[in-house]
Specification:
The complex is a heterodimer of chains A (273) and B (292).
Chain A: H1 5-31, H2 53-60, H3 64-95, H4 99-113, H5 116-129, H6 136-160, H7 164-172, H8 177-188, H9 190-205, H10 209-214, H11 223-232, H12 238-271
Helix pairs in contact in A: 1-12, 2-12, 3-6, 3-9, 4-6, 6-9, 6-12, 7-8, 9-12, 11-12
Chain B: H1 3-32, H2 53-60, H3 63-94, H4 100-107, H5 115-125, H6 132-139, H7 153-181, H8 185-193, H9 198-226, H10 230-235, H11 247-256, H12 261-291
Helix pairs in contact in B: 1-12, 2-12, 3-7, 3-9, 5-7, 7-9, 9-12, 11-12
Classes of the chains: A mainly alpha (273), B mainly alpha (292).
Chain lengths: 273, 292
Amino acid sequence: MNRSLAPMLSLAALALVALYLFPIYWMYISSLKLSGEIFAQPPTFIPDNPSLDAFRWIFERENMGRYIRNSLIIAVGTTFLTLVLGSVGAYALARLRSFWVDAALVFILLAQAFPEALLATPMFVIFREFGLLNTMLAVILATTTKTLAFALIILRPTFLQVPRALEEAAEVDGCTPFTAFFFVTLPVARTGLIVMAALAFIMAYGEFVYPSTLLTNGNLQPATVGLYAFVGAEYADWHNVMAFAAVFSTPVVILFVLLQRSIVSGLTAGAVK
Amino acid sequence: MSRNTTFSLMLAISTGYLVLLVGWPVVYNFILSFQDVTIRNLGNFNRPFVGTAHYEALLANPLFPKVVSNTFFFVVGNVIVQFTLGLGVALLFHKKFPAAKYMRGLILAGWILPPMVVGALWKWMFATEFGVVNHLGVSTGAFAEKIYWLSDPSNALFAVTASNIWFGLPFNFILLLAGLSSIPEDLYEAAELDGAGPFARFWFVTLPLLKPTMLAVLCLGIVYTMRAFDLIWAMTKGGPVDSTLILPMWSYKLSFEFFRFGEGAAVASMSLIVVTVVALVYVRVIRSEYQA
């Protein structure tokens, strides 16, 4: 590698990353602008009078706290259910060899591919039959289909990498196959499970179609639906909208910053193998 | 319990969940598409069978070719641009330079945002009067005057596609980078010793070995782009004048805004067939790599 070229590449890469992340920067600075400045001509790239007015507004007037709480309920519920079902299923997929496993893998991939908008109608009817419309449970169950399919695909390579010898040793010591899985395999697969939980959380937190379809009670709506109500109407107070978007996104951004490296390796291991 | 029984039970629980909540809705959808279903009889099962009436009505609907062409443009545009840009950036980040590892994770920040947020953000950026895209375009001379991005039917699809490209680019980038990293370094060294320049090395070493990854990324790209909903819904809700309406969105609108559940189900079934075909191709691609 030509030594003098390396710093130039760094610069090029930095420029690309900055260019790509510009919209996120724009979201945050728009949220710090005052009502008048948001419509300044030309737009300012650094706020003249940074202000937290927009943030005050969304918490006092737009129920931001309630929306975030609902989003978190859905996200945590879905992540928990996905962790349980996903670890159990992915482990079985990693250890079993049969026609049924191959068929299951194809089915899971297909399930992952289906757009939610298309499953919304039957989901609506099914949950209506069970009297579960307008419950968080329905939304969690529906969202888990999306995250579970993804989790099974992502976790299988993780379990494939855990040596069977560990489980066999545990069984010699008196464990059943299931307790060996629970007490030996799971701790070893800890990192993969954390990554999967993070990805499931991110996916469930940003879910829109299922809450929008299955919940008509405004009190239960998560922030995605709240944001849409803001944006769908011809609302012109963009600094409020951006503040909403910024506050809503921040938990996910923080999670990402903390687990960035592992998320990247988790994604690449699962999708191309 | 024997190992096999335990494992089979574990598999059955997880797969069973998906069969119930994904498989059954798909079948149900298919059945619905052959029935006359309105908001009144949605609750009970008194639904007259109408055969292929919905499908025929859809094919005769002037909106159908428009939605199909929107979907085609949106998907093809997204996949090609995301792939090409993703590959370019991946090739850059594959080289070794200071802070490469740190910066490449940062790019993923766009992909992890809720798609609704991305849609809202780009709606603001594409705003005609005060949006930053028009400002930068006009002040750098790229545009002669401010463009009506989201209110003009001839521009809206382009704006929506561009936004989704921004959203999906990191995913392509990361997977292609992983694929590039799996190509052994010695092959490049050997090629260099044989006198191959950078372009020849790319053509004869990188491309052939990257092919499985590229195919996988293209298939996943098509599948994930077909799932786009939140982003477009936020920006244009399918408008103006249905210029950004893609197949899955049309199905949703038919069912939940016009309450024509039978037709919505018919559109859904057609879309599901398309998605299934692509997904099966993806499975094939992964399989052949697995066995190779």
